[in-house]
Amino acid sequence: MDRNEILNLTALELAQRIREQKVTSEEAVRAVFENIDEHEYKIHAYLDFWKEESLEKAREIDEMIANRAFQEGSSDLPLLGVPVAIKDNLLLSGKKMTCGSKMLQDFVAPYSATCVEKLEKAGAIIIGKTNMDEFGMGASTEHSFFGATLNPKDPTRVPGGSSGGSAAAVAYGGAFAALGTDTGGSIRQPATFCGLVGLRPTYGSVSRHGLTAFASSMDVAGPITRGTRDAAALFNIVIGPDEKDQTSVSAPKVDLEKMESYDLSGKRIAIPKQLISDGTEENREAMSRAVEFCRENKALVEEIDMPILDYAVAIYYILSSAEASADLSRYDGIRYGYRASGAEDITELYRKTRTEGFGKEVKRRILLGNYVLSSEHFNDCYRQAERARNMLKKAFDEVFTKYDLILCPTAPGEAPLLGEIDKDPLSTYIADLCTVPASLAGLPAVSLPLSSSEKALPVGIQFIGPRFGEQEILGASRFLEKGGQK
Amino acid sequence: MDRSSEKELERIARLSGLTLSAEEKDILFSDLARIVPYMERVSELDTSGADAVSDEISDNEALFREDTEKAPSLASEILEQAPQAKDGMFNVPRIV
């Protein structure tokens, strides 16, 4: 197979070809690194990668396959020999993990995140760490201490964020799949802007051990891939309870065969009207095409009213900032990370370290978080938002007693131009309207790209399901991806 | 947050362990002056029937796990990441 043929494969297709010895893992790793050589200097998707080490691992795998050291047809190693990238807020033992921050620019991981370990056990070759908004706070990957990532579909635009590096790497063929993390939309929105599939799994289904905390009650790791089948495969690999994360639970795997035979016929789909009021013409057009498609395939599609969603962005920014201010209090220059020099006493050391180590957006969120947690505002803001979050959860529970799926856009439009987002932080926060509801309610959501023509930038639609409803939302996503039942 | 509460921003910054330059103060103040009222809209909501997550936690019984022996800790690897460490301990400026 030549380089282009290899690079056009999905992660699962590549794994199968490697197993069948139609292509070697070494060839796949080389193809990916040739692409990295070609694109990385302008796109800047990666913060770190390791070519020789990856090639070495690939050769070991190829040798084991040649020696029939793996059982034919075994499903134990679904990503055997496949080059994969991970976001730089996930720990990989012995490698740097910066979270896109000066605070952690020299930090080396003493252990691996559970989800990363699981990927490696599934045979994947982790080839590098991808760029991100500092500590996951941002929607453009422009808030990285190490410089912005550009969108491979149009380098005058942002790739989205905060998992913008993961999305850009997969989009330009610098990896066959990637792990991102999603607190308020950080997997789904960049996947959409880069023309990929992004899955935010049900909260708790993927262990957060080794995922650097931003807002612990919403952080979750998940896949960014070229298609729904790959997303399902990566989901099946990374899920599972973990004694190192007390919020992790056992979640059902997605049956890929069932996913293939999914049919929208008879499905009940709700569209909350609060999530479709804004948005560009391209977006509205994409949504109406999706609705039309669902109806043609005999699904019942209805607009519903969820008034609580008008408050979703406010609730999200109160709670996520409050949690961030607590989660990031650990960066004090004592135990790890950056330490400012020249401090006379311990209080000055804390203050100088944090002032010099954190970027603008992180400071903004910490201040906002400590504002809503301060005694004067605790009841009116923080506690009120907590109660409102429960109301929102219940509103979703109610919807899922009558409907199988929720359909909505992923973002208000296509990827913004570079520099556009930073001008107005409040508008940027409001643009998260379609992604934060699933985050607050702990629900699974998958975004998939739609575009009206080859030239047009992708815009995304999203299926949200009930807790552990990955089979349902990925089935619907796959059905749409295939263009209906074949 | 209104202009008169500029002092409050300084207090929050102090509580956050951050020192803001005059320029940062200006920018953050004007950002927060728009963001905070937007967030405070949640106070309009009637949440009288709803519990807060922390209410539920305090209502629940504490969860226990078995007190079993675990594999050795990563103490030395973790200390390697410290900005300054000495004799198996973190090195910090004088406190008292």
Give an account of the 3D structure:
The complex is a heterodimer of chains A (486) and B (96). Helix content of chain A is 40%, strand content 12%. Chain A is an alpha/beta fold and 486 residues long. Chain A has one domain: Amidase signature (AS) enzymes (Alpha-Beta Complex), CATH 3.90.1300.10. Chain A has an eleven-stranded mixed sheet with strand order 1-3-2-4-6-5-10-11-9-7-8, sandwiched between helices. Chain A is globular and about 65 Å long. The mean pLDDT of chain A is 95. With 96 residues, chain B is mostly helical. Chain B has a domain at 3-43. Chain B is built from four helices and two strands; from the N terminus they run ααααββ. The mean pLDDT of chain B is 83. Chains A and B meet through helix 11, helix 12, helix 13, helix 14 and helix 15 of A and helix 1, helix 2 and helix 4 of B.
Features:
heterodimer, A: 486 residues, alpha/beta, Amidase signature (AS) enzymes, 17 helices, B: 96 residues, mainly alpha, 4 helices, 4% strand, flat
Please write out the topology.
The complex is a heterodimer of chains A (486) and B (96).
Chain A: H1 3-7, H2 11-19, H3 25-43, E1 46-49, H4 51-66, E2 83-87, H5 114-121, E3 125-130, H6 164-171, E4 177-182, H7 188-193, E5 197-200, E6 220-225, H8 228-238, H9 256-260, E7 268-272, H10 281-296, E8 300-304, H11 312-327, H12 346-357, H13 360-373, H14 378-402, E9 405-409, H15 425-430, H16 436-441, E10 445-450, E11 459-464, H17 470-482
Parallel strand pairs in A: 2-3, 2-4, 7-8, 7-9
Antiparallel strand pairs in A: 1-3, 4-6, 5-6, 5-10, 9-11, 10-11
Helix pairs in contact in A: 3-4, 8-17, 11-13, 11-14
Chain B: H1 6-15, H2 22-39, H3 53-59, H4 75-80, E1 85-86, E2 89-90
Antiparallel strand pairs in B: 1-2
